[in-house]
Amino acid sequence: MSRIELMTKSTPRVNCTARKEGCAPTVRTLFDAEEAPLLRYAFSLVGRRAVAEDIVQEAFLQLHIHWDDIESPRAWLFRSVRNRVYNYVRDNRREVLSSDNGDTQSQGVHDESPDAMMLRIEASGSLNQMLEELDEDDRQLVKLKYFDGLKYREISEATGLSISNVGYRLHHILNDLAAKLRPLGFEKIS
């Protein structure tokens, strides 16, 4: 099914999680609202744009198929994408190691001195390495919050964790990352 067919196909209405507000999204409204965040999320996990697009498209196709059975479509989409990414990474470990967007771009750093720029690049590399070393669940929380810009409530819906547990875990993850960066000479990274 093409993207156009998916967006224009008539779909039944179903109550979303915000039933109190009378919310009744369609696949099309969810597609319009969630395609970009889902693509960013998938891309941040697999590092390949084409793979991320395929994963998100498959998630929307499955949403359409199971529409009547899904209580919280947005949270279901994020979980579905996460699970599909994990399956892809598990099945294609070698491919995942090389990204189709492997160039490192530093935007907004043209005014920096060469030393400051090197420090930023080194810190970014160290942080990226530390993020890769995190447990998959912790890495997912960091990516949802800081790369995708989701709120604690949205992260809670996507992961199944309570809102307070999301905050608690993110707090401890960030403290651990900061503690690992300090010995490398990174007191404050702007």
Automatic annotation (TrEMBL):
Q: Which residues form the RNA polymerase sigma-70 region domain?
A: 30-94
* Membrane-spanning ranges: none
The Gene Ontology terms for molecular function here are: DNA binding; sigma factor activity
Q: Name one Pfam family in it.
A: Sigma70_r2
Question: What residues does the RNA polymerase sigma factor 70 region 4 type domain cover?
Answer: 126-174
Q: Which SUPFAM superfamilies match?
A: Sigma2 domain of RNA polymerase sigma factors, Sigma3 and sigma4 domains of RNA polymerase sigma factors
Organism superkingdom? Bacteria
GO BP terms in the entry? DNA-templated transcription initiation
**Similarity comment text for this entry:** Belongs to the sigma-70 factor family. ECF subfamily.
**What is the protein name given in its UniProt record?**
ECF RNA polymerase sigma factor SigL
Q: What is the species of this protein?
A: Novipirellula aureliae
The lineage, from the top, is: Bacteria, Pseudomonadati, Planctomycetota, Planctomycetia, Pirellulales
Which gene carries the instructions for this protein?
Answer: sigL_3
